[in-house]
Design brief:
Elements (H helix, E strand, L loop, with lengths): L1 H19 L44 H11 L1 H29 L16 E8 L3 E7 L8 H12 L3 E5 L2 E5 L3 H11 L8 E6 L3
Parallel strand pairs: 1-5
Antiparallel strand pairs: 1-2, 2-4, 3-4
C-alpha cells in the first residue's frame, strides 16, 4: 500500500510540474498521453522543505512561507532562485492584467469637480414662532465665506437673545430683528454691502 501511495504522489507532482512549466509538455499542440515526458529526468526526484516538510513547490501555501524561503536559500540556493524567478513572473503577469483593466475601465482617474458659481447674496426674513412671537432667519452668509457659528454667536451677543445655526446656510435669531440687520451686517462684515442683502419679508418655516 505504501508503494502505491508513493507512486500516486509522484504522479501528482509530475502533473503539477507540467502545469507549472508548460515547456515540459511540448508546444501545446500535442495530446497529453501517459508515458515519459520530454525534458523530465526519471526517476523524478522530489525535494522536500526542511521547515514545512512539504515538497518545495508547495511551500508558498504554508502559513510560515518566509521561514521556508530562508531554509531554501540556505540549503537549496539553486531551487530557491528558480522559485523566486517563477514568483516574479507571476506577479508581473498579474500587474499587467491590473493595468489593462484600469485602462479599459478608467479606474483611478479622478476628475476634480468644478465648484458651482453661487451668487453672493444674503437673505433675511421673519417667520412666526407660536401665536405672538417670531424669529429672524438669515441665509447666504456662507457665500461670503463667513463662519456661521461665529456669526450666530455674534448675533446672540448683539441682540442678547438666542441664535443658532439651523441649516447648511441658515441662522435663526430669536425675536424680530430683521430691520436692524441691514445696518449691523455691513458694519460687522464690510465685504457685504446693503445691496447684497435682500428682504424676503414674512416667510413660513
Amino acid at each position: 500500500i505504501s508503494i502505491c501511495v508513493v507512486i500516486v504522489y509522484d504522479l501528482v507532482v509530475i502533473v503539477h510540474r507540467c502545469l507549472r512549466f508548460p515547456a515540459a509538455m511540448g508546444d501545446g499542440n500535442e495530446n497529453f498521453a501517459p508515458g515519459p515526458l520530454p525534458g523530465v529526468t526519471y526517476p523524478v526526484q522530489v525535494l522536500y522543505c526542511g521547515n514545512c516538510s512539504m515538497p518545495i513547490e508547495y511551500c508558498e501555501y504554508y502559513p510560515e512561507y518566509e521561514k521556508c524561503k530562508q531554509w531554501l536559500e540556505r540549503n537549496l540556493p539553486e531551487e530557491f532562485e528558480k522559485l523566486m524567478k517563477i514568483g516574479e513572473k507571476e506577479e508581473d503577469g498579474i500587474g499587467e492584467e491590473e493595468k489593462k483593466r484600469q485602462k479599459r475601465g478608467g479606474k483611478g482617474i479622478m476628475k476634480a469637480k468644478k465648484k458651482e458659481d453661487v451668487p453672493k447674496q444674503v437673505c433675511v426674513s421673519r417667520a412666526p414662532r407660536g401665536k405672538k412671537k417670531s424669529v429672524t432667519v438669515v441665509t447666504g452668509l456662507s457665500t461670503f465665506d463667513i463662519d456661521l457659528k461665529v456669526a450666530a454667536k455674534f448675533f446672540g451677543t448683539k441682540f442678547a437673545c438666542g441664535s443658532s445655526v439651523t441649516g447648511e446656510d441658515e441662522i435663526v435669531i430669536q425675536g424680530d430683528v430683521k430691520d436692524d440687520l441691514f445696518d449691523i451686517i455691513p458694519e460687522k462684515w464690510p465685504e457685504i454691502d446693503e445691496d447684497s442683502i435682500e428682504d424676503l419679508g414674512d416667510q413660513k418655516r
